[in-house]
Design a protein that fits this description.
single chain, 126 residues, mainly alpha, two-stranded antiparallel sheet, 2 strands, 3% strand
């Protein structure tokens, strides 16, 4: 169920981006980009939660901080040689910090590339 929830969040994030007009290859309304990035980041967290629940982690033991998610990725997903942890760190910085918190992402190609990485991450965390 959580996996579907992660995909639903990701689809909602893409829909939010469509609300902003594009001028000169930049989103003109940063509010929608911020909301979309925040929602996409939540999709990443939902995907990790779903994976952890399938691996026997109880709901109450799911991470509640970015450090907790990093620790769980290292513990349960180390088969990917740390690549998923590196991808998670990149998505945290791009989606949560630059996109949502700071509102620094306005270039269409950067946001689209970040969303491609997000989708790939969600698909890898099964």
């Amino acid at each position: 169920m959580q996996k579907r929830e992660a995909i639903r969040y990701f689809e909602n994030a893409k829909d939010l981006l469509k609300k902003s007009h594009v001028d000169d290859n930049r989103y003109s309304d940063v509010k929608y980009v911020q909301e979309a990035c925040g929602t996409a980041y939540l999709a990443v967290l939902k995907a990790i939660d779903e994976y952890l629940l399938k691996r026997g982690v109880s709901q109450k033991d799911l991470p509640d901080s970015v450090e907790g998610y990093r620790d769980m990725l290292k513990k349960y997903l180390s088969v990917h040689n740390g690549k998923l942890t590196k991808d998670f760190n990149s998505l945290y910085n791009l989606l949560h910090i630059a996109g949502y918190y700071r509102g620094l992402l306005d270039r269409v190609e950067i946001v689209k590339d970040t969303f491609k990485i997000t989708k790939s991450f969600i698909e890898k965390v099964k």
